[in-house]
Design goal:
By secondary structure, the chain is an alpha/beta fold. The chain is built from six helices and ten strands; from the N terminus they run βββαβααβαββββαβα.
C-alpha cells in the first residue's frame, strides 16, 4: 500500500497498569492523565489523526471524549507487561493500513506525559523532516549527575561504585550522558514497520530541559510530577 501524506499520533494506553493501578485514567490536576497528552497533540496542529491504542473500553471512552479516536482495540497479546512500545506502534500502523490509510509519519506519545509541550513536538517533527536519512527523533534530557559515578548496593547493603574505573575521575572531566525523556517518539512509518532501532545513530535528539521531564512509574513519581506541573504553571512555563 502506498503511504499517504498524513501525520498520525499514536498514544498507547493499556488498561492493566500494575505499579499505579488505573494509571492512564487516574486524575492528574483534575483530568484523566491521558487527556494531557491528547491536548498537547491537538494543540500542536501537527496531526491529521490522533489515535489511542488500548485494550480497555473505559480508556477508549475517555479518549474519545477528549478528542482522540479509537478506530480499533488492541489485542490482549499486546497489552501485557512484556509488550514493547515499538510492537504497539507497528500494530497500530498495520491496523490503519488495513483500513486504507498508511501515514507517512507517526509519533508515539506516551499517555502519562503531562509535562509534554507542543513546541518540542513541533521541533522533533521539523528535525526529522529536515534529515530524510534519519528514522526517528525523540525526547531526551541530560542526566543531572555523571552516570559514570553511579553507586550500587551490594547484597549486604553496602555501597559500591557501579563503574569503579571512574572512582577517582573528576565529574567535570567525564563526558555528559543523556536519557530517554519518555514523552514522544517521532518516526517515519517505513522505519517503524521495518523495525529500525530507536536507540541508534538513525535517531535525532530533541533536547528537553530536565525540569520538564518526569517519568511516572510510581506513586512518588506521580506526586513529583504534580508538584512540577504546579510550579511550572505558576511560573508561566507551561503552555495553556
Amino acid at each position: 500500500m502506498d503511504e499517504v501524506n498524513e501525520v498520525v499520533a499514536i498514544i498507547p494506553a493499556r488498561g492493566g497498569s500494575k505499579r499505579i493501578v488505573g494509571k492512564n485514567l487516574k486524575s492528574f490536576k483534575g483530568v484523566p492523565i491521558i487527556a494531557w497528552s491528547i491536548r498537547a497533540a491537538l494543540g500542536s496542529g501537527l496531526f491529521d489523526r490522533i489515535v489511542v491504542s488500548t485494550d480497555d473500553e473505559d480508556i477508549a471512552e475517555v479518549a474519545r471524549a477528549h478528542g482522540a479516536e479509537v478506530p480499533f482495540m488492541r489485542p490482549a497479546e499486546l497489552a501485557d507487561d512484556h509488550a514493547t512500545t515499538a510492537a504497539v506502534v507497528v500494530h497500530a500502523l498495520q491496523a490503519l493500513a488495513a483500513s486504507g490509510r498508511r501515514p507517512h509519519f507517526a509519533c508515539c506519545i506516551y499517555a502519562t506525559a503531562p509535562l509534554l509541550q507542543r513546541r518540542y513536538l513541533r521541533q522533533g517533527f521539523e528535525q526529522l523532516q529536515a534529515q530524510p536519512e534519519k528514522s526517528f527523533a525523540f525526547s531526551v534530557c541530560s542526566f543531572g549527575f555523571p552516570v559514570q559515578r553511579a553507586l550500587a548496593l551490594t547484597v549486604d547493603g553496602a555501597l559500591t561504585p557501579l563503574y569503579p574505573q571512574y572512582r577517582e575521575t573528576r565529574s567535570q572531566d567525564l563526558p555528559p550522558a543523556y536519557q530517554d525523556a519518555g514523552q514522544f517518539y517521532w518516526g517515519r512509518t517505513s522505519a517503524w514497520l521495518a523495525g529500525d532501532t530507536l536507540y541508534s545513530a538513525q535517531s535525532l535528539p530533541v533536547m528537553l530541559p530536565r525540569h520538564l521531564v518526569q517519568d511516572i512509574d510510581s506513586e512518588e513519581d506521580w506526586v513529583r510530577a504534580e508538584h512540577l506541573h504546579s510550579a511550572l504553571l505558576a511560573g508561566g512555563e507551561l503552555e495553556p
